[in-house]
Write a structure and sequence with these properties.
heterodimer, B: two-stranded antiparallel sheet, 5 strands
Chain lengths: 305, 659
């Protein structure tokens, strides 16, 4: 019974909470710019409004164009079952779940990029090329970090790797974990197309990455894309937060509020990064991603013996 | 029983092309007869494998042979059974595909030759897999190499095809030469040409090391491991597509089989063997896919992906070998199961992709990706099949490629676990390499599928393409089904893999090598099905929303530009430009572009390609140097019989006074 309640709580949080993070990021940026900004609940209203709208579909497209948003959302939803949130284990937890998690997100990326190419637009081709290129460098960084956690915890389950044993590892191998944390935060920013890699608010198609891939989507399909993007941000934030703030040690009723509060804090940090940093030149992005890989690799070397 | 069935099956395959030789060139009767015989042969072969798996005891068959040292010794075990499945499955589907793809009435001059060697190829491979005598193995090997040569040079009127054929022939005979040395060394240790596991005190450490190096070089050349891959891309591109499917899906795997078999015979492998295979595999994997991204020729691109997948298989083997050195059962099971399952998976999805590529080429008569586009509208079934193959080869769930890569990952992560015994931390760095390979493969297949099938047609041929015939679609459909089954229910393959692991490492206790105790195959099934269910619900929701709201059709948003043309779309070179740039240190791409455009530019052209560095800058110059060196010996070869008689006389004289 308890497992069922926790599972339901997990899914409820994963489904309802994510757009709030976008709202908090927006509000933070508004405060930095000296504006009032949209209310934090605005992303929910946007999603509902989009669901009620009609669509314009390009005449060059096929069914692949519709499959992009559908698979993109389905893969993140499935992946969220694997990520531990406020309780120590996720509803689905098995040896090697971390690999499935990474590859589910890869499947989503595949279909999003293919759907972009379906429109035959040069801009969307450009966005797809950039997205898959940067993912090639972000993926090894993610895995190097996972190797560090696997080495420390001696387990291949996300629930154990990001479990309460991390508290002791922060004391013994804090340097490694700090390097991984930094590297994963960079991965979070690039995978979710935030500044300094991509600006979600830009209005120039030539400089976009993720936004330009979905230029031709509209209505409910676009709502699925926006919602999926918020889920993905939530997923990566949860990973980073669990790395910083190991769960499962204290009383269960306290864990969830702390966790959700922590997520809002991550959103604020992202907002601060976006407000204080300029976008990187596109040709410099790979350099920073290689640096992220090296950070995690150093983390692994530090604990290799 | 199982051996006899396979032998009868392979005999039927071997003669399947012969009746066709007696039929007229202008009728299709011959192709139907040979396809039928080949199907029966392959069915018998698969039945033999099934009998073996159902638990019937396999007995060694032994017939004496007049050749000194040679004997007809055949026996099936878990390893040969595993490799026999693609050997019989892929040619059977390929021959059905060939009925429409290489119609006798459309290819009068080479259709009969093609089918003769097309049947001989699986027959020779099956013989090789059963052989327990190294001379018999070499007979199978050589027939395979020659049949393959004639298949690659099917269109031998084309000088480019002939050049590629020569390169292939040279490479394959170089590997045969290495195998002669390898088996001679093995025979010197064991005292006979029988292939049997050697005992510790039968073979010295240095001899075993020499055997391993020869094995990695000789079989690695056949498998296409970097940097021994030079023959591979061209040969795959020039052969007819159903032959490419068999070459990439099955023939390359014979190199893998050789490595697996020989390493199973050698006792106490040192850790360096497994380590070197891991490094070789990672290098092949990363550079193979990096080269693929730079290609414009669809079949060359797929051929480079074969190098990548061979790399993944070899990584699994390396891990298993290292596990055997250190006594880590979990590495052996996960590495070998992952590698061997990838042998199956690669055979399935790569055959699927080559057949899909064949359909595209059949419909448009071009292999250049940049001349295609928009085919999903003209050829919807081919597009779906190709998409499934693309998702599978990227190792994405819920298809089969994910399962085998998952097993290899799991094994690589296990190298970090100090609690279970001795470890090898360096091996763990192969996991991010595998992640890089996976992400690069996604990039490459987004490009391939997007540029070929999506968008608008870039040429007249692409705009007028027609959907492939039923036999081509049917063959691809069977492969798609196989990919789905292994991806969704990997537990079905577990007993076969366990049998193979038992055959490879008989010293391990049988209770420990069960795949299901080391890997959560049940969870993979459950999550795959869940993913499909969520996708179905999401697409139903989207469909119901769209049916309720107004949906209008308009042109693609061109940022205000009103006259877009098909040539403005992203091409394969523009899509891969950033990645090729990142790997420029290894790929050394060629570019031709106008240096400075004047204020009012006239016509200008841009061209970029990625030639094979090892071939262009290593092998070809070396061959030219050797042929220059050999030119000095032409002094001896004047073409006069008298001079040659003199040489013979002098040689005899020298031999007479020897000692």
């Amino acid at each position: 019974m308890e497992a069922f309640v926790i599972g339901a709580l997990h899914m409820l949080t994963a489904i309802v909470f994510p757009p709030l993070m976008l709202g908090v990021i927006g509000k933070t940026k508004a405060v930095f710019a000296g504006r009032v900004g949209p209310p934090v609940m605005q992303p929910y209203r946007d999603l509902i409004k989009l669901c009620r709208k009609g669509s314009v579909i390009s005449e060059t497209t096929t069914w692949v164009f519709q499959a992009g948003p559908v698979v993109g959302l389905a893969t993140v939803l499935t992946a969220l079952l694997l990520i531990p949130l406020g309780s120590s284990f996720a509803p689905v937890s098995f040896t090697g779940d971390l690999i499935l998690l990474a590859y589910l997100l890869g499947l989503g990326r595949f279909f999003t990029a293919v759907a972009a190419l379906d429109t035959g637009s040069a801009f969307e081709g450009m966005g797809a090329a950039r997205e898959v290129t940067f993912a090639c460098l972000a993926e090894p960084a993610l895995f190097l970090g996972l190797l560090v956690l696997a080495k420390l915890s001696g387990s291949l389950q996300l629930g154990v790797m990001l479990g309460d044993s991390l508290t002791t590892h922060w004391a013994t191998a804090g340097a490694s974990l700090a390097l991984v944390l930094l590297s994963w935060f960079i991965v979070l920013l690039v995978e979710n197309c935030r500044v300094p890699f991509d600006d979600p608010n830009t209005h120039l198609e030539l400089t976009m990455i993720h936004e330009v891939m979905v230029l031709d989507h509209s209505g409910p399909a676009f709502a699925m894309i926006l919602y999926g993007a918020s889920l993905k941000l939530f997923a990566f934030s949860a990973l980073v937060l669990r790395l910083m703030l190991p769960m499962g040690g204290g009383p269960a009723w306290l864990d969830w509020p702390i966790f959700l509060g922590g997520l809002l804090l991550v959103a604020v940090v992202i907002g601060v990064v976006e407000s204080t940093m300029a976008r990187l030149k596109l040709t410099h992005v790979p350099t920073l991603l290689v640096a992220a890989c090296l950070l995690s690799a150093f983390g692994l070397v530090l604990i290799a013996r | 029983m199982s051996e006899e069935l396979v032998l009868v099956g392979l005999a039927a395959c071997a003669v399947s092309g012969v009746p066709g030789l007696l039929c007229a060139r202008s009728t299709c009767a011959g192709q139907w007869i040979s396809a039928l015989i080949l199907l029966i042969g392959c069915g018998l072969g698969l039945a033999g494998v099934g009998v073996f798996w159902s638990g019937a005891n396999s007995e060694e068959l032994l017939w004496r042979w007049a050749i000194p040292g040679g004997e007809f010794r055949v026996r099936m075990d878990g390893l040969s059974a595993l490799f026999l499945v693609p050997v019989f499955l892929i040619p059977a589907l390929g021959s059905i595909y060939g009925l429409s793809y290489w119609k006798q009435t459309e290819h009068r001059e080479n259709g009969r030759k093609l089918r003769l060697f097309y049947g001989l190829l699986p027959a020779s491979m099956a013989l090789m897999l059963l052989a327990r005598n190294s001379l018999l193995f070499l007979v199978g090997w050589e027939v395979m190499a020659l049949a393959n040569f004639f298949l690659v040079t099917t269109e031998d009127r084309d000088p480019q095809v002939r050049r590629t054929g020569w390169l292939y022939l040279g490479a394959t005979h170089f590997s045969t030469l290495i195998l002669f040395a390898l088996f001679a060394l093995l025979a010197s240790a064991s005292g006979s040409f029988q292939l049997r596991p050697l005992h510790e005190n039968e073979i010295s450490r240095h001899l075993a090391a020499a055997v391993f190096v020869l094995c990695a070089a000789g079989f690695g050349l056949k498998a296409g491991l970097m940097p021994l891959h030079v023959w591979l891309p061209g040969a795959h591109a020039m052969a007819p597509s159903h032959v490419s499917a068999m070459m990439s899906g099955v023939v390359l795997k014979m190199g893998i089989y050789g490595i697996v078999r020989v390493t199973s015979l050698l006792p106490n492998p040192p850790l360096a063997w497994g380590g070197s295979l891991l490094v070789l595999g990672a290098v092949s994997g990363v550079l193979g896919v990096a080269y693929a991204i730079g290609q414009h020729d669809l079949k060359r691109l797929l051929a480079y992906h074969s190098i990548e997948n061979i790399g993944i298989i070899v990584m699994g083997l390396g891990l298993a070998l290292a596990g055997r050195s250190l006594g880590r059962v979990d590495w052996v099971v996960l590495g070998l199961a992952g590698g061997l399952l990838h042998v199956w998976n690669h055979a399935l999805f790569k055959a699927l992709l080559f057949l899909g590529a064949g359909s595209v080429i059949h419909a448009t008569h071009t292999r250049d990706i940049d001349h295609l586009g928009g085919l999903a509208k003209r050829m919807p079934r081919t597009a779906i099949c190709f998409l499934m193959g693309a998702v599978a080869i990227c190792g994405l769930p819920p298809l089969n490629g994910f399962v085998s890569e998952f097993l290899v990952y799991l094994g690589l992560f296990r190298t970090l676990d100090p609690k279970a015994g001795p470890t090898l931390v360096g091996a763990a760095f192969a996991a991010p390499a595998l992640a890089l390979i996976g992400a690069l493969a996604v990039a490459c297949f987004v490009k391939v599928f997007g540029v070929i099938f999506l968008g608008t047609p870039r040429s007249q041929q692409a705009a007028e393409a027609r959907e492939a015939d039923w036999s081509m679609i049917g063959a691809m459909g069977v492969l798609v089904a196989c990919c789905l089954v292994i991806g969704l229910v990997p537990g079905l393959a577990a007993p076969m893999l366990t049998r193979a692991i038992e055959a490879w490492a008989p010293e391990l206790p049988a209770s420990d090598v069960q795949l299901t105790t080391h890997a959560p195959v049940g969870w993979i099934s459950a999550m795959g099905l869940l993913l499909l269910a969520i996708t179905a619900v999401a697409s139903l929701w989207l469909r119901s929303r769209l049916s309720r709201e107004t949906v209008s059709v308009g042109p693609t948003w061109g940022c205000g530009y009103a006259m877009p043309t098909a040539r403005m779309q992203y091409t394969s070179s523009s899509f891969g430009q950033m990645l090729v740039g990142l790997f420029a240190w290894a790929l050394r791409p060629h570019r031709q572009q106008p240096a400075d455009l004047p204020l009012f530019p006239g016509a200008a052209s841009f061209h970029s390609d990625v030639p094979d560095v090892v071939l262009e800058e290593g092998v070809l110059p070396a061959i030219r140097w050797i042929s220059w060196l050999c030119g000095w010996f032409r002094v001896l070869q004047q073409g006069s019989i008298q001079a040659y008689l003199l040489y013979i006389f002098l040689t005899l004289l020298v031999l007479l006074f020897w000692r």
